[in-house]
Design a protein that fits this description.
The structure holds two protein chains of two kinds.
Chain A (H helix, E strand, L loop, with lengths): L3 E4 L2 E5 L4 E7 L6 E7 L6 E7 L4 E4 L2 E6 L4 E6 L8 E7 L8 E2 L3 E6 L1
Parallel strand pairs in A: 2-11
Antiparallel strand pairs in A: 1-3, 3-8, 4-5, 4-9, 6-7, 7-8, 9-10, 9-11
Chain B lengths: L3 E4 L2 E4 L5 E7 L5 E7 L5 E8 L2 E5 L6 E7 L2 E6 L8 E8 L9 E2 L3 E5 L1
Parallel strand pairs in B: 2-11
Antiparallel strand pairs in B: 1-3, 3-8, 4-5, 4-9, 5-6, 7-8, 9-10, 9-11
The chains are: A mainly beta, B mainly beta.
């Protein structure tokens, strides 16, 4: 089955700095890679996703890159703000997003 | 206008008891899921139902039995609760036929087994 590893497990940055979270996956058939944000005590919410036919996708301060050859993908957050503080999860799926395998999560802390 | 709702929000019970968690979505989605999030925040899928049919059943003890009476509901019944079942259980839904793979999560049910 699919295995997704995520690093780092915790990340602390100053407000305004950039944050990068990296994930690797094992199943070369995986073709959908979402990122979810989970604030303390809340539900996970999709913030951005990418499919295997695209190498990069951007949405305002958030971008995701995908390297299929190396089987890794990354989340980039620029100009971080305190409200970006949360746990971020990457995931991978080879079944039209149906079977999501999540990474272990990254706790991002943005210091004002 | 809650999209995905779960009841109860908190559930405290003793070992050996049987309990149920209910989930409902009003998004018109055709696929629903149950996830378990343990104390280390690790999220793992348990079950997936598409149009009331079970399509994913991960390695979950058979004490856990999902039931989908219709496309808008997916309930989770747990028999003979154990300490290790303590976790937050999230229901989620998606529209498989839409081309958008986004899963919408419910608010979670925090289960504590004492």
């Amino acid at each position: 089955g699919e295995n997704v590893e995520q690093h780092p497990s915790t990340l602390s940055v100053q407000e305004g700095d950039s944050a990068v979270i990296k994930c690797t996956y094992s199943d070369s058939a995986s073709n959908y890679f979402p990122w979810y944000k989970q604030e303390l005590g809340k539900r996970p919410q999709l913030i951005i996703d990418i499919r295997s036919n695209v190498g990069e996708k951007k949405d305002q301060r958030i971008a995701v890159t995908l390297n299929k050859t190396a089987k890794h993908f990354s989340l980039h957050i620029t100009e971080t703000q305190p409200e970006d503080s949360a746990v971020y999860f990457c995931a991978a799926s080879n079944n039209a997003g149906n079977m999501l395998t999540f990474g272990g999560g990254t706790r991002l802390m943005v210091k004002p | 206008d809650t999209a995905v709702s779960q009841t109860p929000k908190y559930l405290v019970t003793q070992m050996g008891n049987d309990k149920s968690i209910k989930c409902e979505q009003n998004l018109g989605h055709d696929t629903m899921y149950w996830y378990k999030q343990d104390s280390k925040k690790f999220l793992k899928i348990m079950f997936s139902y598409n149009n009331k049919e079970l399509i994913i059943n991960e390695t979950v003890p058979n004490r856990f039995s999902p039931k989908s009476p219709d496309k808008a509901h997916l309930n989770l019944h747990i028999n003979s609760l154990e300490l290790g079942d303590s976790a937050v259980y999230f229901c989620a839904s998606s529209l498989w036929t839409s081309g958008s793979y986004e899963q919408y999560f419910g608010p979670g049910t925090r289960l504590t087994v004492t």
